Predict the 3D structure of the following.
Amino acid sequence: MAKTPRQRPAHDRLMQAAQELFYNHGISATGIDAIVARAGVAKKSLYNNFSSKADLVSQYLEARHAEWLALYAARTAAAQTPQARVLAVFDAYQDHAECAYKRGFRGCGLLNAAAELEAGDAGRDAVRQHKEEVERILAQHLAELLPEAPERAAATAAHLAFLLEGAMARAGLEGDSRQVRTARAMAEDMLRTLT
């Protein structure tokens, strides 16, 4: 039997509330009181599960990263070629953009969070690491496609990563995944010229 929302552990309820509120309203605009109210728990529960708001933000960023990795894993499971695995990265971002957001798609939740955090904040480093991992994934698949040209594979991965980030920024402004689909088509054209 599935647990009702009130039966889920307080940690999970707090994370769900933080994810919704941070994405919809921003980290700075979301206070602890709003999070505990949305989660339906006492404030003490928050501090029993997280050492501070900064710890909650850190776990939020980790959850967003894990969420994208799961979307990517689902897409790449059916990808049979290096080209298809590269395009699976774009497809995972499209899936991210097409999730059922209560207040509409507002762009990459990680970049939105990073924009609010001060230079040198650990959260910004976590976002940078996520973006670098996406580029490494692209580079890995391109290295399979171009085993004799590792420099070209790395340069193409950087190019595709920038294309993807630009598409996500535009998709966030427009509130839908059209720009990600356009970027995927561009990436597919680029991949055709590589072989």
